[in-house]
Amino acid sequence: MLFSPEIQFALEQDPDELKRVNFVKERQKYVSILQNLEKQNLEHIAEKMKSLEPELENAISELEQELQSINNTIRILRNISNVSRVASRILMFI
């Protein structure tokens, strides 16, 4: 809002140069304060995320184990299917 075209136009039209300079300075202070607050907020979020990192790593590890277990189950089922197919072909010879 402080950088909107309307504000910028009004600022440029104001004949009081000191007022314009002060406005620009205050606007820059505002931007700086806002950036600092955003940085602090991001740092706070990063700290919280950091504290959850071990839990996330554990959950990923467990997920990988489960996926491996699923892959093993799929391999077992595939092998059972292959054995059944071969057994069926053997039974055809009997």
Quote the average pLDDT.
89
The fraction of residues in strands falls at under 5%
Low-pLDDT runs of 5+ residues are: none
The ordered string of helix (H) and strand (E) elements is: HH
| Major sheet characteristics | none
Number of strands: 0
What is Rg?
34 Å
Globally, the shape reads rod-shaped
* Number of separate structural domains: 1
Query: Helix amount, in percent?
Result: over 70%
Helix count? 2
Structural class: mainly alpha
What is the rounded distance between the termini?
Answer: 87 Å
Keywords: Coiled coil
Coiled coil: 46-80
Please characterize this protein's 3D structure.
Keywords: Coiled coil. Residues 46-80 form a coiled coil. By secondary structure, the protein is mainly alpha-helical. It has one domain. Helices cover 91% and strands 0% of the residues. It contains two helices and no strands. The chain is rod-shaped and about 105 Å long.
Characteristics:
91% helix, mainly alpha, rod-shaped, 94 residues, 2 helices
Q: Which helices and strands, and how do they pair?
A:
Elements: H1 5-13, H2 17-93
Write a compact overview of the structure shown.
This protein is mainly alpha-helical and 94 residues long.
